[in-house]
Design goal:
Pfam families: SAP. The chain is mostly helical and 300 residues long. It contains 17 helices and two strands. It has a two-stranded antiparallel ribbon with strand order 1-2.
Length: 300
């Protein structure tokens, strides 16, 4: 089976049998037409149809669950998960199947084994970024099929980074993705380093493709700055992990030694100052430094 077919098999599991693989989505993103795939999966003994009251219960509203509870003289208070558990404990599965005769798709043993052996397929789909995290890139990068989510994303980002060469805007984007993914799984060290690198790209003037002009350096509308989102995330990390501004500056200076740029709008020292002033809300000093940069451009 192709990786796209394995993905479809993964997505259909647990869905009602009324579920269809959306043609336009699959054709647009993956250039495939999966009209006959569900039948194909069943014929290959990878997928089967079952009556599954436990799945039907999950799809019911709280009010519908309470109505059924009242009909059986059962307690109706509690969270949805408690209501479902109460119904399953009190009503035999055969009777629940009469109330909820809806059929669902379920992976067979062979189907479940195939999905388990190719978990990276679902991870790539869930974190899809064209040209960076997709199946074509995974094939080019010779991505192993049996690695976990963190290793999958790291592998593909590193591959994209190696192939970006001197495309600094692309390298910035890759680093921003690295920050996002690391933050999602709470790998704070990786997230902080990636965030600091993103700030350096911005202040170096390498994250943008347009030429730097006096007008584009106007504060605070300039894009050559520490974005409010980055400031917010830094402050959150500082608060949650008891870091001082000096700790962040030290980490920032270490990143300067590891990531060398061909040219910079702001020098390393100026970047240090801007980061410190941003974290300590010294906006007047920030504005003065941008004015100096504007004057410098006028003199060129």
């Amino acid at each position: 089976m192709t990786v796209i077919e394995i993905l479809a098999l993964t997505l259909v599991a647990g869905q009602p049998t009324t579920f269809k693989l959306n043609q336009s989505f699959w054709q647009h993103r993956y250039q495939v037409a999966p009209k006959t795939w569900l039948v194909k999966f069943e014929q290959a003994n990878l997928l089967q149809q079952i009556v599954a009251p436990e799945l039907s219960l999950q799809q019911q509203t709280v009010n519908a669950l309470k109505t059924l509870l009242r009909a059986h003289n059962l307690k109706v208070s509690g969270r949805k998960v408690e209501l479902i558990s109460r119904l399953q404990a009190a009503i035999p599965a055969t009777e629940l199947a009469i109330y909820f005769p809806q059929s669902f798709y379920q992976l067979t043993t062979a189907g479940a084994h195939l999905v388990d052996q190719n978990q990276t397929v679902r991870w790539i789909h869930d974190h899809y970024v064209a040209g960076i995290i997709d199946f074509q890139t995974a094939e080019q990068a010779q991505l192993p099929a049996d690695i976990d989510l963190d290793a999958t994303l790291d592998w593909l980002l590193n591959f994209a980074q190696a192939n970006a060469q001197s495309d600094w805007a692309q390298l910035y984007y890759i680093e921003h993705l690295r920050f996002q993914f690391a933050w999602q799984v709470q790998h704070i060290g990786t997230a902080l380093n990636a965030l600091l690198d993103c700030i350096r790209f911005k202040l170096a003037g390498l994250a943008q493709t347009e030429p730097i002009t006096v007008l584009s350096l106007g504060w605070p509308t300039t894009t050559y700055k520490i974005e409010p989102f980055y400031k917010y995330m830094l402050q959150k990390i500082m608060h949650d992990y008891d870091l001082a501004a000096a700790d962040v500056i030290t980490a920032f200076q270490k990143r300067q030694q590891l990531l060398v740029f061909p040219h910079q709008l702001f020098s390393d020292l100026e970047m240090d100052q801007l980061l410190l002033w941003t974290l300590t809300e010294q906006n007047q000093r920030i504005q003065q430094l941008y004015l100096q940069k504007q004057k410098g451009l006028l003199c060129v």
